[in-house]
Amino acid sequence: MLAHHQGGLLNAAQFARNLGVDGRTVAGYLDLLTDLLLLRQLPPWHQNLGKRLVKSSKVYLRDSGLLHALLGIADKDSLLGHPVRWIQLREGFVIDSLLAQSAGKAQAHFYRTSAGAEIDLLLTWPNNETWAIEVKRSLSPKPEKGFHHACADLQPNRRLVVYPGQERYRLGEGIEAIPLHLLATEVLARASM
């Protein structure tokens, strides 16, 4: 169930209903999977901006091999044949990779309003510097309107779009497209300061 819910909002009550068990049982198992480092529960950013913010965490299975096996994805063609799943799988991998490089120095959240403003990953460093990170599939990524609205709400110090290409370049409006390996290097350098 969690594999099919990759990158979705956590609704433990719905899981409990689907499994026919008590909500506390589901919550206990989710906490256990989190403690075992098999599951990441990415909390929502929740400062009061006068906006209606999503309050549920997003969930990601952290082991991409296990995730692919549970979803029946045996090879690259199977993965690419499921475009909806592909971005959710990539998002979880990107988030986990960047947080590993941050060595616990950055707080991680996602941001989503009921009006559709959204940031996949918001890193907040100890000096309150924030990095807004969006994950895209395209080799010529274009941030959606929701990312622009979210950045207008939060005014992050950096606005980054992770994409599967190899070059970094400006997308305009203070937004930069960057490959994961280059951003991971920057996160590691920032965490080492």
Number of strands: 9
How many domain modules?
1
- Our measurement of the CA-to-CA distance between the termini, rounded to an integer number of angstroms, reads 40 Å
| Topology pattern, helix = H, strand = E | EHHEEHHHEEEHEEEH
Stretches where pLDDT falls below 50 for ≥5 residues? none
Strand share of the residues?
15-25%
Lateral strand order in the biggest sheet: 4-5-6-7-9-8
- What is the name of the CATH topology? Trna Endonuclease, Chain: A, domain 1
Work out the helicity level.
25-40%
Keywords, please?
39% helix; 193 residues; alpha+beta; Trna Endonuclease, Chain: A, domain 1; three-stranded antiparallel β-sheet
Describe this structure in words.
This protein is of the alpha+beta class. It has one domain: Trna Endonuclease, Chain: A, domain 1. It is built from seven helices and nine strands, in the order βααββαααβββαβββα. The strands form two sheets. A six-stranded mixed sheet has the order 4-5-6-7-9-8. A three-stranded antiparallel sheet has the order 1-3-2. A hairpin with a 5-residue loop joins strand 4 and strand 5. Helix 1 crosses helix 2 and helix 5 packs parallel to helix 7. The longest helix is centred in the middle third of the chain and has 20 residues, at 83-102. It is globular, with a radius of gyration of 17 Å. The N and C termini lie far apart (40 Å).
